[in-house]
Amino acid sequence: MTDVRMATLADLPQLLGLAHVMHAESRYRDRPLSESRVADLIASLINSPDGVVLVADDGGRIVGGVVGVVADDWFTVCRVAYEYAVFLDPGARGGRLALRMVQAFQREAKGRGASRVEMGITTGVHPERTARLYEHCGFEFLGPVYSKEL
């Protein structure tokens, strides 16, 4: 069974590999991926008491991850968990692993004092399936995200 656990810096090379897979599949594929920026962000979150980086470890092979942060909300004194990315390798999809990863993110967020978790769908990768997953986990739909190239 695939283990969902906190990431370590040793996981970074495999996480960067997954970042490339996610990028190639997403609506962002026409924008250049900066591996150094992704690595710096993930490393800083792994090293931060507010960072939440989880991996789905299938016998030493990282097949998924959740990257996020728990921070003070910008307009209240409440702590909120914000997800930057949730991704599963295409070969690891279709089971309960995504559910387990979202649940683990929620547990970590609560354990770090968050009173709310915010998760979005902006990559364009299976938005309907992802929405069903989030709703199954008790999230409420708040509205779409709009984007415009300049």
The gist of it:
With 150 residues, this protein is of the alpha+beta class.
Structure in words:
The protein has 150 residues and is α+β, with helices and mostly antiparallel strands. It has helices spanning 12-25, 35-47, 97-111, 127-136, and strands at residues 3-6, 51-58, 61-72, 79-88, 116-118. β2 and β3 (61-72) form a beta hairpin.
How would the blueprint of this fold be written?
Blueprint: E1 3-6, H1 12-25, H2 35-47, E2 51-58, E3 61-72, E4 79-88, H3 97-111, E5 116-118, H4 127-136
Helix pairs in contact: 1-2
Rg from Cα: 15 Å
Strand content: 15-25%
Strand order, largest beta sheet: 1-2-3-4-5
Largest sheet: 5 strands, mixed
Structural class: alpha+beta
Mean pLDDT value: 96
Report how far apart the termini are. 45 Å
> Which residue ranges are poorly predicted, with pLDDT under 50 across at least 5 consecutive positions?
none
The percent of residues in helical segments reads 25-40%
Number of strands: 5
Count the DSSP helices.
4
Q: Outline, from the CA principal axes?
A: globular
H/E element string?
Answer: EHHEEEHEH
